[in-house]
User: What shape does this take?
Amino acid sequence: MMDAVWLGLGGLALSAFLSATVLPGNSELALGAFLYQWPSWWLAALLLATLANSLGSASSLYLGRLAPRKELTGRALGTLQRFGPAALLLSWVPLLGDALPLAAGWLRLPVLPCLVWIVLGKCLRYAMLVLAIKAWL
Assistant: This one.
């Protein structure tokens, strides 16, 4: 039984990490499936999904810092220029959220504030999902 829980947590972590990159992943479904099977593990699932999804965004932030500087345009860039690291609170939003950490890295925004806003946004999102899933179950 415990092996299955750990395997489920590993799958959730992998899905959450990939979902925060440009690679396909669906952490919402993985979280729902995990909580359906092991509802008492909600806190571990919340923390792990937040951590893994935040690490995925952090890897995008790092990759953005490696990119050569050239002219960028677009919605993500405009949002970042207007709000700075706080815009990364929206890094969980589909499509836009994948671009925000890349653009933040490219703009060389300060890493620590970026990471704080990323983690906060991801945690709030997963907390709302956990509450909704628990209410549904």
About this structure: Residues 2-136 form one domain. The CA atoms of residues 9 and 44 lie 8 Å apart. The chain has a mean pLDDT of 91.
